[in-house]
Amino acid sequence: VPMVAPGNVQVHVINSTLAKVHWDPVPLKSVRGHLQGYKVYYWKVQSLSRRNRRHVEKKILTFRGNKTFGMLPGLEPYSSYKLNVRVVNGKGEGPASPDKVFKTPEGVPSSPSFLKITNPTLDSLTLEWGSPTHPNGVLTSYTLKFQPINNTHELGPLVEIRIPANESSLILKNLNYSTRYKFYFNAQTSVGSGSQITEEAVTIMDE
């Protein structure tokens, strides 16, 4: 098997889900056989928004021939990763380079996990929601937009409300009675808005 690990391993984080890794080629004599390529082992150490450590699944990407760089796609935003690089010949893999730590920046969150509308009265509705399964960063706020829908399915004026990130419910007052409303709800990090969840509900006709 090869004798030497690739040196000078560098990671360039391109965005929240993509990084580029560079390394110096090993001396050909140290390969002790036919150089087949390089393997990059990489794994997520932890999510920076949740301090949980779970079973670590190592991923491996193989770059054929005498390449000295490769792309690592499909990373999770706002996470800490480690990687190392090994050279490969027909017999197997050489030793691993020292582990390199890198962090991905924040991304936009996934949609809120649920939006539930309860307790209709003549002029109010209660909204409850769950935070995104994948915050992909630090949540800064939620945005709620809503508008009335009339019997011919035309949409009325859109109202927009910003809600602090630590809230999980809201009572909407001063609504019209016996009116159907459509709601659009999403979460934000400093990077931007995540995908929205939509729901409809009706205020009651009379007490």
Automatic annotation (TrEMBL):
Q: Repeat: present as a keyword of the record? A: yes
Q: Which SUPFAM superfamilies match?
A: Fibronectin type III
Can you cite an annotated GO cellular component? neuron projection
Q: Which Pfam families match?
A: fn3 (PF00041)
Q: Which UniProt keywords apply?
A: Disulfide bond, Immunoglobulin domain, Repeat
**Cited Gene3D superfamilies:** Immunoglobulins
User: Which residues does the UniProt record annotate as the domain Fibronectin type-III?
Assistant: 5-107, 111-207
User: What InterPro entries does its record include?
Assistant: FN3_dom, FN3_sf, Ig-like_fold, Neural/epithelial_adhesion
Keyword Repeat applies: yes
Q: Which domain of life is it from?
A: Eukaryota
Query: What is the name of this protein?
Result: NRCAM protein
